[in-house]
Design brief:
Helix content is 44%, strand content 15%. By secondary structure, the protein is α/β, with parallel strands linked by helices. The chain has a single domain (6-258), classed as Spore Coat Polysaccharide Biosynthesis Protein SpsA, Chain A (Alpha-Beta Complex), CATH 3.90.550. Strands 5-4-1-6-8-7-9 form a seven-stranded mixed β-sheet. Helix 3 (81-91) packs across helix 5 and helix 8 runs antiparallel to helix 10. The longest helix has 19 residues, at 240-258. It is globular, with a radius of gyration of 18 Å.
Length: 259
Amino acid sequence: MEKVKNLCVIQARLGSTRLPGKVLMKVGDVPLLEYELKRVQLAKKIDKIVVATSVEKRDDEIEKLCGRLGVDCFRGSEDDVLDRYYQCSLKYSQFDNILRVTGDCPLIDPAVIDQVISLFEKGGYDYASNVLKETFPDGLDVEIFKRSVLHEAAREAELPSDREGVDEYILRGRKYKKGNLSAAADWSRFRLTLDEKEDFAVIKFLIENSEITDGYSRYISLLNKHPEIVALNSRFKRNEGSLKALEKDKIFLKNKKKI
């Protein structure tokens, strides 16, 4: 029996509205996307990693970084991220499952990646993640879905939030069997993602005071000892980008009714 293969697709672009160029911001001499790639490469259950960026000229820099690091780079739609994933999966057709990681999670934990994949495999799920119930710090998000499920979503999804968010259509679908990995405790109040300049200050502090091989428990320990660092970005809401996409849905549905 052939081994089931897992393709990890890391979405990354330089056109962020809140923090342009964020994935190539540097701590020391290392771009954060490079730091994230090195952490993802520590996961044991991933068979291949691809960075999926846009066809926009500004994202040439991401392709150059991937070339320097020897990592495949796929280029597709900037705004229709679901199609970007779909087209990427067509190019890498030998992979059964697609793992989704975002480029604004430089502190992603390779052990958590492996745990989500193990849950997915053992449970026979169509989709598994650690975000269905948010107990992990924001910035450790991992999702995996069957290739066939991704393709169905790409064919059927219409709403802007579905196309931008990749997973929204799947999350709403009752026919899909979904699994969730929960943390040992609720650490969802900690923010390790990169969307604001204050987030960068937190991430810089954590990188400078940890090893690249450290798990997220090291970050929690550091933040518990330094509440002044936690306070830097604690006012920002989780999934703020998703909330903006939902506003686009309202406009889309309103216009659709007029047709």
